Amino acid sequence: MSPQLHATALAATVLLAACSVAPTYQRPAAQVGAAFKESVPESAQWKLAQPSDALARGEWWTIFGDPKLDELQAEAARANQTLRAGFARLAQARAAAGIAESQRFPQIEAGFGATRFRASPASQGLPADADVSAQTLWRAQALASYEVDLFGRVANAVAAARADVEQTEGLYKSLLLAIQADVAANYLALRGLDAEIALLAETVRLREQALALVERRLKAGEIAELDVARAKTELATTRAERVALERRRAEIEHALAVLVGKAPAELALAPQPLAFAPIAVPAGLPSSLLERRPDIAAAERAMAAANARIGVARAAWFPRLTLTGLLGLESAEFGDLARSASRTWALGPLAGTALSLTVFDGGRRAANERGAEAAYEEAVAAYRQTVLGALREVEDGLSGLRLLAQQAAEQASSVESAQRAADLSGTRYRAGYVNYLEVIDAERQVLATRRAATQIERERALATVALIRALGGGWEGAPKLAANMEKSLR
Fold first, then answer.
1. In 3D, which of 179, 181, 190, 185 has the Cα closest to residue 253?
2. Where do the domains of the chain lie?
3. Using CA atoms, how far apart are residues 149 and 147, in angstroms rounded to an integer?
4. Does the reported pTM lie above 0.85?
5. How far apart, in Å, do the first and last CA atoms of the chain sit?
6. pLDDT of residue 40 exceeding 60
7. How many Cβ atoms from other residues are within 10 Å of residue 266's Cβ?
8. How far apart are CA 428 and CA 351, in angstroms?
9. Contact residues for 261 (Cβ-Cβ < 8 A; gap 6+)
10. What are 231-245's pLDDT values in tens digits?
11. Three-state SS for 330?
């Protein structure tokens, strides 16, 4: 490209490129309160076993103090196939941004070849029957073109592509957080079932002893055979319930295997009853969710991209200025191609510029602009809905933990009372004051209350995971894990 043409392009860029027609982007307001509904004075909070500063915002699952859970999380970050697909989508978005960025620079093409042609006699001013010989023309040339971004079409396309990358990064981090939460929730649910299965195993052992007792009393003639039948029924029922829980445990173990990128046959977790201690999860202020939650960040970036695309659509109403230039060699003989006399050059029309403007398109540009504006409004609504959904999830988590703590306290009292009643029923039965049906009812109550207590502890652990996820736990640690994933995929 000649120095004059380069100067023209530079001047046009400096003077006109800043004329963007995109709306000035500002993040729309979202409805967030000053505090969560479940926020209470510190003096009124229920007692917690661990201080809130123990909550790790990156590898947050370490607060449960379970090395096996830590191991499963590492395997999921490395081998989960859904996470790999999310990373591939991120790579695609980055590539698309690179394509958009390329429009900022001149496009240069080079070519070499020969053209065989025969001019018509009329073009030479000769009679129709004149003999015109065919010719061969050899060419080696480079063609350069550059669009001067008069009204921000290219700049807005680049801004939209960059926002798309940031949105995809937010979605990837949200996916990472979801998988971390799924691994933790499934693992804690499995350990909760281990605790419940252990309880049923202990109940089976006690009912086997009770069956042996009533069989001895039957042989001694102290009781009727009905008591033995009842004892056998209770024993068989408890064993069946234990088998049902083992089936559910197997299904959760299979789900965990898939989450960590393994076939179900490759993962076997030894039984280990859940040992859960309440954990303080600092909720912070509702406004902090706008910064902590990756899905909210992704929704905000989607708005920015949609806003930039309005500028791209509006720029179509204005002229496009493209600078073109050609420099090369042209010769009728291949051997003469390298000679200085073979040099040739060309510039576009109007002193090296091509100014184009669509005059009529049947409403296509107007429709594109309306579509871009509607897409922005959709992105705004989706952003606000995402914020509202996040606030609801946090409120659900806070209220769930508070109420589950109260429920656990009441259930502990229920277990104590049921055990006391069972002990009294056993004493009265051995003394011959009551029949065995009263003992069975009391033991059923003990088992039911203890199972309920175990299930509440499992629900508290799962509610803790859900609250951490709702608060965007893992946001600060996501870049490190994302870097590890990127390294593993190379």
1. 190
2. 21-106+152-321+369-489
3. 6
4. no
5. 40
6. no
7. 9
8. 112
9. 75, 76, 78, 79, 80, 81
10. 999 999 999 999 999
11. strand
